[in-house]
């Protein structure tokens, strides 16, 4: 079991990375949210609600890509997975439970410290690192995930190229991000941030990407888009996978 640190404290034993795709203001913003990352009613509550449909989508894409039986409990056994922009570990931990050897990276060292503590308490071995994608040069992963992250990157095309460089031959990359639409501006920026459902200043609508924008970046990095799926929301049903891409969406790519 790894030694524990106080929630939100910077663990000096963590490998510290830096990268040109990191916006320091974004890293500071999310670092300040680290202490209650695992509180489903805290400042990351929206991510807790997003997690079930996102995980369902990842599992479906993994099963389809590697032609696996959906009843298998650990479909990622023997595979390496990267969670870039891992925050407190909401995705990294389920990936580890699905059998993957997980490397999880985030620009906010405070969030990484919280993630490392939480994983240790769960008995999960996850390679957590503070920093950006650039310092992963030379490492490759079978599954590369970066969910709700690219809209915070300083260099979005460079961010996608960096992720593509970590994707192993035959691997699978899954991204998610809000669409740049009137609906996303109203729901995510105007309403959610003004009511406190999402902390103020979390999003800049001008950084949101349309599916065509993101697909062009993915294609420019040498990958091929194989699936795009929307995430819709309603007061009664919460978040769910949908054909409607107007709020938020997931994109899957492989090598062309």
Oligomerization state? single chain
SSE class: alpha/beta
Task: Please count the helical segments.
Answer: 7
CATH topology: Rossmann fold
Q: Kindly, what is the distance between the CA atoms of the first and last residues, rounded to a whole number of angstroms?
A: 41 Å
What is the count of β-strands? 8
**Average of the residue pLDDT scores:** 90
Shape verdict: globular
Strand content: 15-25%
Would you state the CATH class?
Alpha Beta
CATH homologous superfamily?
Vaccinia Virus protein VP39
Protein name: Ubiquinone biosynthesis O-methyltransferase
Pfam families: Methyltransf_23
InterPro entries: SAM-dependent_MTases_sf, UbiG_MeTrfase
Family: Belongs to the methyltransferase superfamily. UbiG/COQ3 family.
Describe this structure in words.
O-methyltransferase that catalyzes the 2 O-methylation steps in the ubiquinone biosynthetic pathway. The protein is of the alpha/beta class and 256 residues long. The protein has one domain (24-255): Rossmann fold (3-Layer(aba) Sandwich), CATH 3.40.50. It has helices spanning 24-31, 45-66, 92-97, 109-121, 156-165, 182-195, 211-220; strands at 80-84, 101-106, 127-130, 141-147, 167-178, 223-234, 238-242, 248-255. An eight-stranded mixed beta sheet has the order 3-2-1-4-5-8-6-7. The longest helix has 22 residues, at 45-66. The chain is globular, with a radius of gyration of 17 Å. The relative contact order is 0.16.
């Amino acid at each position: 079991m790894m030694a524990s640190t106080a929630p939100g404290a910077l663990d000096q034993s963590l490998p510290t990375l830096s990268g040109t795709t990191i916006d320091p203001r974004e890293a500071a913003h999310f670092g300040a949210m680290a202490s209650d990352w695992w509180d489903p009613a805290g400042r990351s509550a929206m991510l807790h609600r997003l997690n079930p449909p996102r995980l369902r989508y990842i599992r479906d894409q993994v099963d389809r890509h590697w032609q696996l039986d959906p009843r298998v409990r650990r479909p990622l056994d023997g595979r390496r997975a990267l969670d870039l922009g891992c925050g407190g570990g909401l995705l990294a931990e389920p990936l580890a439970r699905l059998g993957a050897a997980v490397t999880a990276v985030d620009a906010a060292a405070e969030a990484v410290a919280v993630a490392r503590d939480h994983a240790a308490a769960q008995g999960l071995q996850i390679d957590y690192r503070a920093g950006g994608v650039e310092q992963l040069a030379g490492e490759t992963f079978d599954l590369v995930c970066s969910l709700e992250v690219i809209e915070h990157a300083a260099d979005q095309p460079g961010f996608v190229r960096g992720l593509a460089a970590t994707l192993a031959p035959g691997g699978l990359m899954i991204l998610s991000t809000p669409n740049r639409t009137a609906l996303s501006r109203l729901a995510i920026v105007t309403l959610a941030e003004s009511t406190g459902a999402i902390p103020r200043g979390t999003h800049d609508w001008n950084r949101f990407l349309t599916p065509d924008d993101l697909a062009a970046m993915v294609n420019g990095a040498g990958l091929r888009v194989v699936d795009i799926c929307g995430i819709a929301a309603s007061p009664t049903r919460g978040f769910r996978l949908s054909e409607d891409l107007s709020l938020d969406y997931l994109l899957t790519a492989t090598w062309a």
